[in-house]
Each structure stands twice: as structure tokens, then as C-alpha cells.
Amino acid sequence: MVQQREWRSRRDFLRSLFAAGGGAALATAGRSAFPADAPATVGGESLNQLAGVSNALQTTSRVSLIQGDDQRRNTIEALKAIEPEIRRGLEGKKRVLIKPNFVHTAIPLCATQAPVAEGIIEFLRPIFKGEIVIGESSANAPATEGFKNYGYEELARKYQVPLIDFDTQPFTYMYCIDDKFRVVPARTTKMVFDPDTYIISAARLKTHDRVVATLSLKNLLVGAVIKDTTAGWGKDKKGRNDKPITHGGNTIRGVNFNLFKLAEQLRPHLALIDGFQGMEGNGPTGGTPVDHRIAIASTDFLAADRVAIEVMGIDWKKVGYLNFCAQAGMGQADLAKIEIQGEKPENVKRTYKLHSNMPKQYEWG
To answer: What percentage of the chain has pLDDT greater than the value 90?
Structure first.
């Protein structure tokens, strides 16, 4: 995994903007991000040279895919299947941050449920002696509302695990672009940049209204960006919410590009995607349930998200931001090079109904 780092200035962001082929990826969706005859250079080197492994990641990643009738047990079994990789990642870390998805604090179907977090904690306790915390910044209201509504307060008491609202913590900045390609700072909790912290993105299998599907990467990136404690999504709450900044001026190309560029700065050490009950249709908050009963885990976030796309019956080529990450070599997205532990994707595959605005979402290419 590329070391996570804090981007301290607009200059740093702009200097990096094309170093990993960001502009090329945005302009060449659906084919190789860096064609062999591309004349563009940065500092005398071709974009292909700068990208290194962007055309094809050669290593094999492991992903666990578990199906069963117990949500907590599915989580534990998914993690046990890749325990050696998790143990290696935990070496030298002082704490684990579990990042659930509370995009809304009062819609249970859209949120990471407490049994998933409990399964993660129970898996970690025998192998990790450091601190375990749960942290989130919800889109619509204080994360404390989600902790209360979704049973996390009881979980915290049972396991003595602190619950943290990122909106109340010190912050730094990540930088995004708006619809005019202007650089805009987004306040981001400092917790996710602590080198002593191992980050677990505990996401939920869901369709989305802008990027087709929202999985482990997006859960961390948008959830780490904060808002004022009085702010929500939209104009009905007072205060500033920086999460919409990640959406690139509310454009399909903008949000896909921003997620790709932010992933160069921040990505989870471990992806855990709960699909015990997925969401289809008008996600990430207005969809309907899918009784899928699966869990996916990997220390390669992209491999986990790629398998999730497959079992949702979604055309991989249609998911912009993850294709950009794949083209830049951020992880393994070639199913032939992903070693899957547990179920075969074709045996648990469901065809999720996508958002009603899908023709618009495909305009990232």
C-alpha cells in the first residue's frame, strides 16, 4: 500500500495532479489510461513511466467472499480468511480505526450495522492489543445520532470502544476540484493521517446516485471529510459541510475524478464490505433491500471493491472512479489475478437494480 500522506498545499495537489495520470485517466475512460503513443510528458518522463504499474498490476491480491445466515459470523469468517495479511498490516500500529458508513443517521438500510462492527472487534481482540476506536462523520447530522440509532452505544459499552465524531476533532485539508477545475480545500479529520492508525473501512453494499456503487473506498474518503456540527446535506441546516466539495461541483466527471485523486492520499488498510442486506435502486439512502447474505474483505481495497461490483451484477467498465484507480495501479482489479477465498462470485452473484439516473452517471467517460 502506498503510504498515506497529508497534502499541505494547493501547490502540492496541482504538482501531483497529472503525475499519476489523473488528466489522462479522466480523458481516456474505457481504454488504457496511458496509451503507448501518448506524447505527454512530465519532467521529461512519459506518463507511462510515471505511472509505473498503471497499465497492469502484476501481483495477486486475496479477497474473502463469505455467504451465511449470521451477519456477525460472516464478518468474522471473512476476516479470518485473510488473517495473515491483516496481522502484517497491524504490526507497529497503536490503534485501529473502524470507519462505518452513516451517510444518514436515521435510515438503517443505508448504514453499517452494529453486528458488523462487533464482528470486527471480536476478530481483532485476540490478535491486536492496541486501542480500537470507531469514528465517523455523517452527511446529514452529527455522527452521535447514528451511534445512538444504530446500536453502537451499547456496543461501545460492551467492548469499551470509544465512539468518535470526526466533526469534533482536529482537521487538516485535502484538495479537490470543482466544475471549473478550480482547486477547493476540504476539511478532513487528522485521525486518518496518523501513521500509528490502521484504518478499516466497514462499508455496505449499495448502489449510488453519482458513482454507480459506493463501497469501501468512497466510504472512507467522503466520511473522512468533515462538516460543522450544526450542518447537514443541503440548505436546511446551518453551517458549512465540506463533503459536497468531493463531488466536483456536483458533476459526474468531477466526483469520479476527485475520488481517484483523493485515493492517492488516503485509502483503507482493510476493506470490509457487508452485503448481508444490500441496497439496490436509488442508493445511497433511498434504495430497497437485497437479501444477499454475504461479506467481502481484503487488504487491497480495490480488489475488494472489484469483487463487490462483480457480485452486484454491475458492469465494471461503467464505474469511473474505480477504473481510474485501477489504471493508476492502486490495487488489483483484474479478476484473473484476484485469489478469492470462500464462495465463487458467480455462485453468489445478484443483479442489483441500479439508480434511476444511470444514463447520466455513465457520462464520466
So the answer is: 80
